[in-house]
């Protein structure tokens, strides 16, 4: 398994839309059009998001992104300062790559990229608990479930 991350380009939007509209992804990502809008506006209002296509060799198989929680200001956490706490999202868009360890590897590569490039205090993630594969991928990469805050956390310092 040799995965690489490549920044999303306009030419990737059609494939991303195809993936985001698949039933097994919609159950976790819900509003595909909102995700596509964010990617189209990645150099504008959503420039705090870093979007990537995941490749296995030369085949695009998935998507991932990371962001500074300070900029995103979502309602499931509280962050007072920028450049400290980051979060991630990830998916496998090609069904024949499901249940084969690719999700775990995507989380590993993306986590390492954030640690290397941003030197965060922590990375937090809040997949739905019913998304067992996602939760297992996080646990396999050293994330710990924080019962008090209802999210997975990887302390980086």
Summarize the structure.
By secondary structure, this protein is of the alpha+beta class.
Question: How would you sum up this structure, described in words?
Answer:
This protein is an alpha+beta fold and 157 residues long. The protein has a single domain (3-155), classed as 3-Layer(aba) Sandwich (Aminopeptidase). It contains 6 helices and 7 strands. It has helices at 13-20, 23-29, 32-40, 69-72, 102-118, 132-140, and strands at residues 3-7, 49-56, 59-68, 85-92, 122-125, 144-146, 151-155. It has a 7-stranded mixed beta sheet with strand order 1-2-3-4-5-7-6. The longest helix is centred in the C-terminal third of the chain and has 17 residues, at 102-118. It is globular. The relative contact order is 0.15. The mean pLDDT is 95. It holds the Pfam family Acetyltransf_8. It comes from uncultured Dysgonomonas sp.
Task: Write down the CATH class.
Answer: Alpha Beta
Biggest sheet: strand arrangement: 1-2-3-4-5-7-6
Tally of helical runs: 6
Number of self-contained structural domains:
1
CATH homologous superfamily caption: Gcn5-related N-acetyltransferase (GNAT)
Helix content: 25-40%
Kindly report the CATH topology. Answer: Aminopeptidase
The CATH architecture designation is 3-Layer(aba) Sandwich
Average of the residue pLDDT scores: 95
Question: How many beta-strand elements?
Answer: 7
How does the major sheet shape up? 7 strands, mixed
Assign the structural class, choosing from mainly alpha, mainly beta, alpha/beta, alpha+beta, or little secondary structure. Answer: alpha+beta
Distance between the termini: 29 Å
What's the shape? globular
Strand content: 25-35%
Radius of gyration: 15 Å
Show unreliable segments: none
Give the SSE string. EHHHEEHEHEHEE
């Amino acid at each position: 398994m040799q995965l690489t991350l490549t920044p999303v380009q306009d030419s990737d939007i059609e494939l991303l839309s195809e993936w985001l509209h698949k039933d097994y992804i919609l159950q976790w990502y819900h509003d595909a059009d909102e995700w596509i809008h964010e990617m189209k506006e990645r150099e504008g209002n959503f420039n705090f998001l870093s979007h990537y296509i995941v490749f296995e060799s030369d085949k695009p198989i998935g998507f991932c992104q990371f962001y500074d929680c300070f900029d995103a200001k979502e309602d499931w956490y509280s962050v007072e300062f920028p450049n400290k706490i980051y979060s991630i999202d990830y998916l496998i868009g090609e069904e024949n790559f499901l249940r084969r360890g690719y999700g775990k590897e995507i989380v590993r590569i993306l986590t390492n990229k954030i640690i290397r490039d941003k030197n965060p205090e922590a990375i937090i993630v809040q997949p739905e608990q019913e998304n067992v594969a996602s939760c297992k991928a996080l646990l396999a990469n050293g994330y710990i479930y924080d019962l008090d805050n209802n999210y997975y956390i990887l302390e980086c310092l």
